[in-house]
Write a structure and sequence with these properties.
By secondary structure, this protein is of the alpha+beta class. Helices cover 32% and strands 28% of the residues. The protein has a seven-stranded mixed β-sheet. α3 crosses α9. The longest helix is centred in the first third of the chain and has 20 residues. It binds glycyl-adenosine-5'-phosphate (GAP). The site of glycyl-adenosine-5'-phosphate has 18 residues, from β11, β14, β15 and α10. The site of glycyl-adenosine-5'-phosphate (GAP) has 18 residues, from β11, β14, β15 and α10.
């Protein structure tokens, strides 16, 4: 990877911390690895992203139903889904001297060995044959399977085990019958959910990319078995449209067909949508799996409750499932990478986030030219409040001079800045009364716009 790309990721991470997008989790206590807290601008960006996703995949369609299931579920859910078994384990390896732990497949890859699809025993064999040592030069343990679910105890006696869900999907499967019984959906249809998921990753890393607590936006799309391929192609196009909608360039997205020996325990086909992260290259952004009838069939067998769809004609059947699954943190990372731009403006290097306006934390910033002139401040406050009533996410910025405010707003991706000056007050030329300067983030161009037309202009 080239140095410039490596630096870009570092610059983005540092911007995120400096400007209130993302902070280390439990920061004042030295952090907790694999956890991040979203600050005021990060939560705004996150919420905008999730709202756009919901608008596109749920509200914008007739075949989708929303859900918000509990994070804690009966442990039988995870037995039936296969998550308590080997299917949800990562291979763990340890430095026998220091106790440092690594994910064996990543460790081997970094050492130049492709172990995709290999069993722990096969990896052990390579390590012995090639005499591979830990990064500190010590002997390594045997590879063992490590289950990534966080277990917890439920109840005053703590006698029941539950897990922090490692995917939101199972909340959807266990509610399949509830949704069918209450909403009478027509086939094919989907159930969508946005929510937290938790995985005890062996080696959390790369900022928001691999963490222990994250959010997913998932759809389980129920189809008749014979239609799965046709529906898969349709959803695949919808996923492509989503990535366009959040501003990701087509050349930075790649669809990777996951080889059969590397498929998740429930999947017969998976395409990973990969993003070209700077300094890292193409890696997973979202997954799109064909889960067959694996989950509903297992839940039916384990719970004794029929997980069948009853068609108008013909016999009840267990639908097959297509699953587009998106990680919010990875989408945010990709959006930030795509938006992070350096250019030359007024003979200076400037850094700005070229965020799509439907994602930017602030839609617009408003300021008086001078903060010590009450008439300017009063007028600017009136414009600010009117825009805030319309858009909600409007910033008030009266710190420093106008040039500095522009730079500050550029850096957090605010698409437009509105400045109230003496012309607005009608003091320079009467025909300019009640007009403001609107400055465009990307071009730096400024236009005069009548206050009465500001909302439609910004829209
Ligand atoms: N229900 C299917 C499922 O969970 P997955 O490929 O394991 O499939 C789906 O996860 C998406 O969730 C990934 O594409 C990624 O965006 C996100 N994701 C998974 N593990 C993650 C982690 N440890 N940190 C951040 N995001 C993660």
């Amino acid at each position: 990877m080239n140095e410039k790309a490596d630096k870009k990721m570092e610059q983005i991470t540092s911007l995120c911390k400096r400007r209130g997008f993302v902070f280390q989790g439990s920061d004042i206590y030295g952090g907790l690895k694999g956890t991040w807290d979203f600050g005021p601008l990060g939560v705004a960006l996150n919420n905008n992203l999730k709202r756009e996703w919901w608008k596109m995949f749920v509200d914008g369609r007739e075949d989708m139903y929303g859900l918000d299931a509990a994070i804690l579920m009966n442990e039988k859910v995870w037995e039936a889904s296969g998550h308590t078994g080997a299917g949800f384990c990562d291979p763990l390896i340890e430095d026998l001297e220091t106790g440092e732990r690594f994910r064996a497949d990543h460790f081997m890859e970094e050492n130049g060995y492709d172990v995709e699809g290999k069993t722990p025993e096969q990896i052990d064999e390579i390590i012995a044959r090639e005499d591979i040592k830990s990064p500190k030069g010590n002997a390594l343990s045997k590879v063992r399977e490590f289950n990534m679910m966080f277990a917890t105890k439920v109840g005053a006696q703590g006698d029941m085990t539950s897990y922090l869900r490692p995917e939101t999907a199972q909340g959807i499967f266990v509610n399949f019958k509830n949704v069918v019984d209450t909403m009478a959906p027509k086939m094919p249809f989907g159930i969508a959910q946005i929510g937290k998921a938790f995985r005890n990753e062996i080696a959390p890393r790369e900022f928001l990319f691999r963490v222990r607590e994250f959010e997913q936006m998932e759809i389980e799309y129920f189809v008749q078995e014979e239609h799965w391929e046709a529906e898969y192609e349709k959803l695949r196009l919808d996923i492509q449209k989503w990535h366009q909608h959040i501003g990701l360039a087509a050349e930075n997205i790649r669809e990777f067909e996951v080889p059969a020996n590397d498929l998740a325990h429930y999947s017969k086909r998976t395409i990973d949508f990969e993003y070209n992260y700077p300094g890292k290259g193409f890696d997973e952004l979202a997954g799109f799996a064909y889960r067959t009838d694996h989950d509903l069939k297992n839940h039916e067998a384990a719970s004794g409750v029929k997980m069948r769809y009853v068609p108008a004609e013909g016999a009840p059947f267990i639908p097959h499932v297509l699953e587009p699954s998106f990680g919010v943190g990875r989408a945010i990372t990709a959006v930030l990478c795509e938006a992070y731009t350096e250019d030359q403006m007024n003979d200076e290097v400037r850094t700005y986030l070229k965020l799509p306006k439907h994602l930017a934390p602030y839609r617009v910033a408003v300021s008086p030219l001078l903060k010590n002139k009450p008439a300017l401040v009063e007028k600017a406050r009136a414009v600010f409040l009117a825009l805030k009533a319309e858009f909600g996410n409007v910033a008030w910025d009266d710190n420093g001079n106008v040039g500095k405010r522009y730079r500050r707003q550029d850096e957090i991706g605010t698409p437009a800045c509105v400045v109230i000056d003496f012309e607005t007050l009608g003091q320079e030329a009467p025909e300019l009364a009640d007009t403001v300067t609107v400055r465009n983030r990307d071009t730096g161009a400024q236009e005069r716009v009548a206050i009465a037309e500001l909302v439609s202009y910004l829209e």
